[in-house]
């Protein structure tokens, strides 16, 4: 072999080796690639399954109404087409006025992608119509909506709030957690016997007992009725129970069964001042001294006049110097009369029944008078008496079967109160201190 021939063989060998290496690398690469492909092809379907559970409906959401929102606007916002939102709201309107939606109110909805893949279909909607009711809207077959109103299940319970009066009954009872509505009922019930401006001094105590209706889902509570209230003023207890005597309206009674509501109002007009009292006086028009058989209340023309007590209108019409006049007959041979009226209230006429506080007419200046005022008379057994001494008249008192029912009601309230106190007290022997 010549050296030149050996050189050629060596070069060929090198080229072959290089070629073999290139081939090896190529096949190696293509093998790797195939294996990668195999891996991805097995993982792709599982990825598609994952995304399917995330992206496909139905979806549910709780939307909160903010300022300027309407039901239509919040439905449009999540992609419900306007015409469908309109149909839904029309159906809902049969059980709920959409205008009653309040700011911060929550609306729970279920919706799904429309087959066209572009917008959404409303499937279900639920909202709280008011404290006692929920409304639900369901999409039925054919894309129609059906609305239903459901009474919520409320838990009936009792609440006892008590404490010391340091600032005022109102401030301290509110701070102790009393419902403002119940507190107002308490103040109103005691207003016949307690002067809230004067009688409540620091060191006084209060107690309210009322029932409530609780929605356990939202935790919201609605007070029912004030069943019992107590004030301790200068060590003197004032207790009232709410009771409905057979055939009567509910009212507040003392523990002895006496109604706090007096049979007759001392002042049958709101915000008026007495400008001429009962008794002898020099008559402003006639000029000589004459017995004034009533009380005059100065008030602007048109001020409403209330019936002083339950009774029957005995006379309603002009009556000489009295001008436009009403006389009401009450029980116990009592009558009240109202003179110089500008007009009578609608429906008030001879023989009708009126209730205490009902508006019967309006202040005027008809008959013999120098200006608009109410002349008010109280007549007992045909004798004129001073209406300002009406507190001397007995209040309605429960008797007979009504009193028996009242005593049973009081005992029931006491038992509920006692049971609650016992349930809240830690069992005997429990270590509570340090
Ligand atoms: Zn008079």
Question: How would you describe the overall organization of this protein?
Answer:
The chain has 434 residues and is of the alpha+beta class. It folds into 3 domains: 59-151, Roll (Nuclear Transport Factor 2, Chain: A); 155-253, Nuclear Transport Factor 2, Chain: A, CATH 3.10.450.350; 273-392, Glucose Permease (Domain IIA) (Distorted Sandwich). 26% of the residues lie in helices and 33% in strands. A hairpin with a 6-residue loop joins strand 12 and strand 13. The longest helix is centred in the N-terminal third of the chain and has 53 residues, at 3-55. It is elongated and about 165 Å long. Mean pLDDT is 82; it is low at 25-54. The structure holds zinc ion. Residues 276, 292, 294, 296, 375 line the site of zinc ion.
| H/E element order | HEHHEEEEEHHEEEEEEEEEEEEEEEEEH
Rounded to the nearest angstrom, the radius of gyration is 42 Å
Overall structural domain count: 3
Q: Strand content of the residues, in percent?
A: 25-35%
